[in-house]
Amino acid sequence: MGTAPRQIIRDIMAVSVTAVFVLPILWWGLSSITPNDVLLDPRRFLTLDFTPTFRHYALAILGAGGTVYDSRDSLVDSVIVALLSTAAVLVAALPMAHALSVFRFRGRQLAFRSLLLQRAVPPIVIVFPLVITYHRLGMLDSHIGLALAHAAINLPFAVLVLKSFFDEIPPEVREAAYLDGATPLQAFLRISLPLIKGGIAATAILAFIFSWTEFLLSLFLTQNMRLMPVQAAILIMNMWGLVAALTTTALLPAFIFILFVQRHLVRGFTLGLAK
User: Fold this and answer.
1) Maximum distance among all alpha carbons in the chain?
2) For the whole model, what pTM was predicted?
3) What structural domains and CATH numbers belong to the chain?
């Protein structure tokens, strides 16, 4: 098989795989601007025989439909929790990833494998012990409590991603800093961190997105405070346009952030193997 046919096959496969992920999102976006009566009529929906409406967004985001459909508090709570969780992840993950990358110490491989194992553990395993602990500590339905839970889930992944970026820094750079009289802490703050600022940004965005879209922990650890995924799930399910509008709104930050740091995200997801 020549080069041209192979390229065509690769292009077809790439488009097909992309369509599998993109078409459902486009479907949600289209549903969010479709009148409810058209959503129940497949012929009109598929042929785009309708006038787009933004009433669903007005109901969910602007509170035009009263408190039943108003999701503004969920948006605010989601942003607060995601920002707190992202900050906690970076504060803990940066020194851990730097230590695993730079220093050779006893138990280093065990710590690295433990991170991999923790990343493989599904959140449902820790939900019930976490609910009991949070209940006793009075941390249920709090921004700090939920942010810490999200940070704990996202920390192993963040450490592994950041370690891949620290691994790409030549050892000679740090050695030159040591020869100039820098301490390990100064080399970390003034040399290593500026060199991987792209990786830090990518990791922060991933941590934000994972917290923003987390459903299971948000469902069990909140009662009065409802975040975006939970709010979308508890809306009246015959209001598909409203649910689609809220879901599309929840997806927008992820798309916007990914567009800005897509190159670093590829390196992060491949743990430094992609150049």
Assistant:
1) 73
2) 0.79
3) 33-269 (1.10.3720.10)
